[in-house]
Amino acid sequence: MSFRELGLSEKVLQAVDASGYTNPTPIQEQAIPYALAGRDILGIAQTGTGKTAAFTLPMLCRLEMGRARARMPRTLILEPTRELAAQVEESFTRYGVNHKLNVALLIGGMSFGDQETKITRGADVLIATPGRLLDFSERGKLLLTGIEILVIDEADRMLDMGFIPDIERICKLVPFTRQTLFFSATMPPEITRLVDTFLHNPVRIEVAPPSSTASTITQKLVASAPGAAKRETLRRLIGEAKDAENFKNAIIFCNRKRDVALLHNSLQKHGYAVGALHGDMDQRARMASLDAFKSGEVALIVCSDVAARGLDIPDVSHVFNFDVPTHAEDYVHRIGRTGRAGRSGIALSIVTHADQKYIDEIEKLIATKIEWMNEKPSASEAPEEAPAEEPRGRTRGGRGNWRRASPSSGERPSPAIAAAEPDDVLPPRLPRQNVKSRRRDGREAPERAAPERVAAPERTERRPRAQVSNDPPVVGMGDHVPMFLLRPVKLKPVKVVEEQD
Length: 501
Ligand code: AMP
Prior knowledge:
- The chain is α/β, with parallel strands linked by helices.
- It is about 35% helix and about 15% strand.
- It folds into 2 domains: about 200 residues, Rossmann fold (3-Layer(aba) Sandwich); about 160 residues, P-loop containing nucleotide triphosphate hydrolases (Rossmann fold), CATH 3.40.50.
- The strands form 3 sheets. Strands 3-4-2-5-6-1-7 form a 7-stranded parallel beta sheet, sandwiched between helices. Strands 10-11-9-12-13-8-14 form a 7-stranded parallel beta sheet, sandwiched between helices. A two-stranded antiparallel ribbon has the order 15-16.
- The radius of gyration is 25 Å and the shape is globular.
- The termini are far apart.
- Adenosine monophosphate binds next to helix 3.
C-alpha cells in the first residue's frame, strides 16, 4: 500500500516523500485512515514502529482547516518525558514543512516565559509533559476547551512514572467530543481502565507485540567477570566493533544512573569521546548530550533506561548492555534502539554469573535463545558484585507478574567493586536531588525522568508507581520507636482548680 492510498493531503504527501519514506509501516497503514475519519484509536505499538508519523500525519491533514486562538490550543500531545516531547516536535517540523502551523512545547526545565509567549500567540499543536501542562492550566494561562485531537503517547511509560492521575485530570479538562489517539506498548490493567473510561468506541490496532525483537538485530551474549574486568570487556567489544566495518555509533546501557556516571568517567579516562544521559542530569545537559550523539560529534553514549526509553535516534549501529537489564521488557526496549525501520543492528550484552537468571527471563520473554560469543560465565569467576539494579520496589518477571525487588540492590558501591578497582574511577558525588531521593530504608529511589514541574510542590500524587509498596501497612512507628518515647514519664501532680461561673 502507498501513502497516497491512505487519504493524506497533498501537502503531507510531499513532506513524507521528502522524508524518503516509500511505504507506510503497518501501524501507519492501519491507523491513518481511521484517524483521518475522526475515530478514536487504541494503538498497541512500541517506538520504532513508525507510530509518531501514524498520529502526526493525519493530525496535520486535519489541522489544514481552521485556526488556533490565543491560549486555546487545537490539538494536544502528551508525552512522558521531555526528550520524547522534543522529538515529537521535530516530527512536526519535518512532516509539517508545507504547513504554517504554530507548534508549542510545554516541558519542564525550560523557561516558563518563552512557553507562555507561544501559547498566548495561539498553538495549533501543543506537545507537553503532564506536569508542566497542568501548571499552565492551573495558573489560568491555558484553556483546554478548544482541543480537537488529544494524543496520549507511551501510556504504559506514563503509568511507570506515576503520571496516570495527571492524565485523568487532563482528560477531564478537554472537551468530551475530542478525538483521542492513544498509544501504549503494553496493556496492563490500569491502562485498560483508562482506555475504557476516556476513549469512545476506539479502533484497536496492534502491531508487533512488546515481547518481540526485530529480526534485523543480531543479538549476542558476552560472558565477563564483574567490576573492572567488565569495563575492560566493554572496551574490547567497542574496539572489535570499531574494527568491523558496520560500526557507526553505540548506545551503552547501565542499570543505575550512578553507574552511568561511573562508566562515562571511566571511558573518558580511557580516551573515548563519549556522552552520558541519565535522569539526574539537568535538561540542558541531557539535550546537549543527545544532540552531540545525534550529530555524530560523539559516537558513544552511556544511558540509563529512563533517559533512553523511546528516544528515536535513527541509525544506531550497536547497543551494548553493560548491565543485563533486570526487567526482561527493558531488554526489548533497549535493543530496539538499533535495527530500526528495517536497518540492521547489533546488540551485545555483557553477562556476569549473577546475571544468568535475568538472561533466562529475557530468553523466555523473547522466545529466543541468544547466542554466546564465548563460554557462559562460571561461578568461579572474580568476586561477585551486587546485582546492578536500580531499585524499583518491584520487578516484573513476565507481564502481569509483579514481585518485590531484591533488597540487595542497595545504593552503596558493592565491596567487590570498591576492592577490585581502587585506582580506576570512584563513583562521582551524587547531585543534591539524588540525596533527597533517598528513602527511609536507605535505598535509592527508582530513577524517573527529572522532575518536570517547578511549581506546585504540594502535589504528591505523581509518585512513581513503583514506590507503591505491597507491604502490610505500618502501625504507629513500625519497628522503630524513638528512645525518648520509651523513657518512663514522671508526671507532676496537677492542681485542680474548680471552675467558677
Ligand atoms: P517511531 O516509532 O515513531 O519512533 O519511528 C521510528 C523511526 O522510523 C523514525 O526514525 C522514523 O523516521 C522512521 N519511520 C517512520 N515511518 C517510516 C516509514 N514509513 N518508512 C521508513 N521509516 C519510517
